[in-house]
Design a protein that fits this description.
This protein is an alpha+beta fold and 59 residues long. It has one domain (2-55). It has one helix at 45-55, and strands spanning 2-4, 11-15, 20-25, 28-34. The chain has a 4-stranded antiparallel β-sheet, with no helix packed on it. β3 (20-25) and β4 form a beta hairpin. It is globular.
């Protein structure tokens, strides 16, 4: 899944099969992490997708 953050045009990508989240700004990766149950209290795949969709413009 991928979307563009409206505040600065950064590309945010989430890979549901692995939980990886990455943010690319100006052609470089600026943030990269794996979403786990310790982050934001999400543990299952659907909760991770919901977290991603709700977080796009919150970063």
């Amino acid at each position: 899944m991928q979307d563009t953050r409206s505040s600065d045009g950064a590309i945010i990508r989430f890979e549901p099969s692995t939980g990886y989240v990455g943010v690319m700004q100006e052609g470089s990766i600026s943030t990269f992490f794996r979403l786990t149950s310790q982050i934001e209290g999400v543990s299952d795949a659907q909760a991770q997708v919901t977290w991603f969709l709700n977080s796009i413009d919150g970063w």
